[in-house]
């Protein structure tokens, strides 16, 4: 990589190890993209990041191997040759490494020209320049970055700059093509948002082999990074358009008091997050009030339904590229899950397989291992409410199916739901028992049109009905 990617992130060893589990990349808060100096601060320090292209280039591969001993030298050498031939940023850095006055030089990374189309390959003179002394410093633009030869600090780069992607992900952008910036527009001149741009990049196409979709763990990091970038873009719009959302009508003092702030000196001018910003306090409060209004009108929910994404679904397995695992394609998992969810909603809300539904609410969450799941509350019509034990027995069963009469259902129950001696290889098992404290209990829902299997339910949660839909 050319530069640092700093964030509040962590790798959870409990979710994945060398034997089982999936790689998990998590971001906590903002992600900061920073660039250091062209040369190491001390002569004894090992070159890192873009310094490898300039300092001690004869031992460049050895320096990269020092970052990770599991790397293969032959693959590193092939990648280096590709970047040396095609990447305009590398071209400028290699030219800089041959200069005798490198100590007095500065490396200027340029913003994308406003008349440059996104699909046009940039040249070395367009993406970067070498400046000696103070020459041309006055001509720097707002989002241009000037990297000094030797510096003891890191320079921050904005995520709204087009060079953000090719600098942080040279393997995904070997030609140095720019990513999204504030000036990105379509062929018709329409301004393209950050979400639209990266949605286009993650799209699957029959006649196009996308590098982004083949990068494995790097694809996961790229997706998380750009998700944070989209959120930052939304927050920036809210901060710059407080008058548009009429933030002056919000009761700032009352909100501060309710949040526990009793000192008026600490209130100041606040940036208001409207309820249209998903995940904001006002958004959550509005959703809660809407749900309570439904309960007030139609009564308490009758069914708690959960559907979890299964990475073994045929639609997912069929679209995986050679050598890929489901966790390598978070985009594919979410798309298939969304399609399955829409089909489940048709079954429950239109086909009335569990009874006529008069009101419902649901929320979509992501597990720590990256799989989405939905929690849905269903309020049934008065004529279909579950009032007696016989009504519950029609859709709920708390026993393991008979292997002779229902072999497929029996197989799935033992594979996905049972702890203990019947499934000792379950990821949650530790020293012969479930580390979460669940016992070998399960709930099954069946109907004529569809069959549902719940996730694992403990003794303390038997009042919650959690189901995962089966698809042959």
Summarize it.
With 472 residues, the chain is α+β, with helices and mostly antiparallel strands.
Describe the structure.
The protein is α+β, with helices and mostly antiparallel strands and 472 residues long. The chain has 3 domains: 4-179, no CATH class; 241-272, no CATH class; 297-469, no CATH class. Helix content is 30%, strand content 15%. The chain has 13 helices and 14 strands. It has helices at residues 60-67, 73-86, 88-97, 124-127, 164-168, 194-201, 217-240, 252-258, 281-298, 314-319, 330-350, 389-393, 407-416, and strands spanning 4-10, 26-35, 105-109, 128-132, 145-147, 155-157, 303-308, 357-366, 372-380, 429-430, 433-434, 445-446, 451-453, 468-469. A 3-stranded antiparallel β-sheet has the order 1-2-6, covered by helices on one side. Strands 4-3-5 form a 3-stranded antiparallel β-sheet. Strand 8 and strand 9 (372-380) form a beta hairpin. It is globular and about 90 Å long. It starts with a strand and ends with a strand.
């Amino acid at each position: 990589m050319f530069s640092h990617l700093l964030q509040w992130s962590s790798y959870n060893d409990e979710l994945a190890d060398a034997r089982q589990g999936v790689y998990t990349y998590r971001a906590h808060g903002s992600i900061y993209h920073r660039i250091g100096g062209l040369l190491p601060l001390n002569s004894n320090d090992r070159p890192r990041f873009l310094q490898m292209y300039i300092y001690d280039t004869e031992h460049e591969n050895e320096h990269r191997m020092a970052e990770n001993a599991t790397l293969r030298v032959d693959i590193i050498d092939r990648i280096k040759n590709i970047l040396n031939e095609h990447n305009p940023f590398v071209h400028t850095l290699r030219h800089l490494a041959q200069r005798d006055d490198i100590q007095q030089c500065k490396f200027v990374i340029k913003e994308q020209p406003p008349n440059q189309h996104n699909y046009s390959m940039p040249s070395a003179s367009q993406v970067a320049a070498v400046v000696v002394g103070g020459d041309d410093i006055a001509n720097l633009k707002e989002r241009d970055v000037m990297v000094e030869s030797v510096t003891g600090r890191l320079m921050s780069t904005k995520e709204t700059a087009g060079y953000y992607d090719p600098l942080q992900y040279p393997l995904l952008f070997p030609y140095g093509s720019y990513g999204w910036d504030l000036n990105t527009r379509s062929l018709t001149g329409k301004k393209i948002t950050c979400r639209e741009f990266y949605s286009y990049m993650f799209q699957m196409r029959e006649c196009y082999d996308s590098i982004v979709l083949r990068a494995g763990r790097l694809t996961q990091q790229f997706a998380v990074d750009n998700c944070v970038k989209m959120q930052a873009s939304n927050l920036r719009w809210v901060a710059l358009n407080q008058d548009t959302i009429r933030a002056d009508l919000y009761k700032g003092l009352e909100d501060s008091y309710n949040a526990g702030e009793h000192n008026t000196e600490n209130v100041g001018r606040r940036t208001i997050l409207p309820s249209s910003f998903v995940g904001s306090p006002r958004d959550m409060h509005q959703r809660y009030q809407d749900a309570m209004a439904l309960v007030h009108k139609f009564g308490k929910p009758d069914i708690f339904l959960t559907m979890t994404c299964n990475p073994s679904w045929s639609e997912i397995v069929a679209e995986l590229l050679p050598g890929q695992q489901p966790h390598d394609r978070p985009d594919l998992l979410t798309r298939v899950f969304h399609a399955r969810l829409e089909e489940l909603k048709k079954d429950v809300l239109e086909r009335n397989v569990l009874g006529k539904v008069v009101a419902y609410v649901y929320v979509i969450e992501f597990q720590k291992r990256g799989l989405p799941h939905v929690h849905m509350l269903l309020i049934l019509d008065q004529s279909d409410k579950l009032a007696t034990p016989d009504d519950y027995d029609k859709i709920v069963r708390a026993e393991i199916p008979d292997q002779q009469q229902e072999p497929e259902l029996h197989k799935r129950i033992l594979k996905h739901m049972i702890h203990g001696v019947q499934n000792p290889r379950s990821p949650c098992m530790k020293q012969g028992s479930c580390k979460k404290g669940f016992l070998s209990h399960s709930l099954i829902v069946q109907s004529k049109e569809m069959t549902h299997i719940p996730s694992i339910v403990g003794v303390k949660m038997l009042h919650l009905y959690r189901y995962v839909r089966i698809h042959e």
